[in-house]
Design brief:
Blueprint lengths: L11 H13 L28 H9 L4 E7 L5 H17 L4 E5 L4 E6 L5 H9 L4 E6 L2 E4 L16 H19 L10
Length: 188
């Protein structure tokens, strides 16, 4: 049997053990559990359309927190991005979508959804907005109405990095072939 200790002599470990004993007998409802401890929602395979991979993602993300990146077109200031995304968030709120918004750059915001099952409906709303350049959801980039014409390729992957790397490689190779410590001086 455990030795009785005066409550004034309890240390942090004793208090943690006491808290565990109290919580062990508590009946915590499933909705109150943190997301990682909740059992996953059962997936109804009859609703899956094999021609649309998005339908599988919708069902697997249902009830889970999901984030999507949204880019505002043009060259907005951070305040302008705040105002535009606030209007979008208000419209989504009025349509009963629980969305939180975080500004992460002068033209970029994160929309966090409590239920990822609605992400594709929200994405469809956002890409139809005049000032939406693109929406990134689950690694896919969807161009919006505000995207430049050359970027309106559905579900594009960003080729800018590959192009920049090729340009850097060409530059490096030309310097390497030159075998000089510095680049030649240009006359103005």
């Amino acid at each position: 049997p455990a030795k009785k200790k005066d409550i004034r002599d309890y240390n942090d470990a004793d208090m943690a053990r006491l808290l565990e004993q109290w919580e062990k007998d508590d009946d915590i409802e499933e909705g109150d559990l943190p997301e990682h401890k909740r059992p996953p929602a059962p997936i109804d395979f009859s609703k899956i359309d094999p021609g649309k991979p998005e339908s599988i993602l919708k069902l697997t993300k249902k009830g889970k927190t999901l984030m999507m990146f949204v880019t505002v077109s043009g060259n907005p200031s951070e305040k302008e991005t705040e105002e535009i995304t606030s209007l979008w968030q208000g419209s989504l709120f009025n349509a009963n979508y629980d969305v939180q918004r975080f500004i992460v750059g002068s033209n970029r915001a994160i929309f966090m959804l409590r239920d990822g099952g609605y992400a594709w409906e929200i994405k469809d709303f956002l890409i139809n907005q005049e000032r939406c350049a693109d929406v990134t959801l689950e690694g896919q980039v969807y161009p919006g109405k505000g995207a430049e014409e050359n970027e309106k390729v559905k579900n594009k992957t960003k080729p800018e990095k590959a192009k920049k790397k090729k340009d850097a490689d060409k530059k490096f190779n030309s310097i390497k072939e030159d075998n000089r410590a510095t680049t030649p001086r240009e006359d103005l």
